[in-house]
Each structure stands twice: as C-alpha cells, then as structure tokens.
Amino acid sequence: MTTAHDVIRQQIGKIVDGIHAKDLDALRRIYAADVVSFDVEPPLQHVGVEAKLKNWARAFTFFAEVSYEVRDLTLTVGDDVAFGHCFGRLSGTLGDGTVTNGMWVRATFCFRKIDGDWLIVHDQASVPFDMSSGRGVVDLDP
Predict the structure, then answer these.
(1) Whole-number pLDDT of residue 2
(2) Distance between the two ends of the chain, CA-based, in angstroms?
(3) Which of 14, 32, 116, 139 fits a 20 to 30 Å CA distance from 110?
(4) DSSP-derived secondary structure for 7-50
C-alpha cells in the first residue's frame, strides 16, 4: 500500500527528474497554482506557479546539462498538509562546457493535498550567511 509519505517522496523525485530533463511542464504539475516561493534569488518572494517556473527557466539557461540532488529528506505528514526539509544541490555542465558541482542549499517544502494530489504550496531555498561580512556561505557540504 502506498502511503502519503511515499507519494510525497515521489513528488520530490519528480522535481529531481523534471529539473534533470529541464521539463517545465513536469515541474508545473508538482506546484499549486498559488505557490509562494522564497528562492535564493531576488525578489524576497515569488508568488504563483508562473513565477516559480520563470525561476526554473532562468536557471536552465545557464546549464547545457543540469541535475538536482536531494540529501537527508525528512517529512512530516498529516491528513491534508505536509512539510519536509532537506539539502539540495543544483549542479551540471554550464553552457560554455564548464562542469560545476553547484552549491548545497537548505530546502523546505510545504505540501497541501488539493483535489487528491499532494502539491507544493510553499518552498524555500536558503544558504547560511557570514554575519561579519553579510555574504552568503556557499561552500558548505552536508
């Protein structure tokens, strides 16, 4: 029997697959229409699935080949709301042929069961920052 935990893990897997394929339509099916995203790039929030997909489209322009790795995913699941956190890393081969290991970010996903589907209604990606310089610290590994 497939549990809600299993279904949500599959949704996270679809994010990984969608990013690898640069498939915006596949990613669209994972997010709620009114998703609110606190991503690593400005502005402070991106509201709606079109804004979220615009971020992914912009990221894809940098990469000839791209992958996304999820590590240490932890989920808490209720009847119609769930949240999870993990470390995520976007990496690949840039358009000029440079291979990049990317950087690890802290990722949080909030899901809501909408019409029987577990969809992301909020996500956040962040990096720690050095308080003395005010700069993000992007060279850490989990």
Answers:
(1) 87
(2) 32
(3) 139
(4) HHHHHHHHHHHHHHTT-HHHHHTTEEEEEEEE-SSSSS-EESHH
Does the structure show a pLDDT above 90 at 41?
no
Q: Which two tokens stand for residue 82?
A: 């769930």
Report the alpha-carbon distance of residue 53 to residue 35 in Å, rounded: 11
Q: Which of 133, 105, 111 is nearest to 31 (CA)?
A: 111
pTM exceeding the 0.90 threshold for the entire prediction:
yes
Residue 67 CA neighbour count, 13 Å, CB half: 8
Q: Which amino acid, one-letter code, is at 141?
A: D
pLDDT band at 1 (very low <50, low <70, confident <90, very high): confident
The C-alpha atoms of residue 99 and residue 63 are separated, in whole angstroms, by 9
Question: How many other β-carbons are positioned within 10 Å of the β-carbon of residue 75?
Answer: 17
* Structural domains of the chain sorted by starting position, each given as residue range(s) with its CATH number in brackets: 4-136 (3.10.450.50)
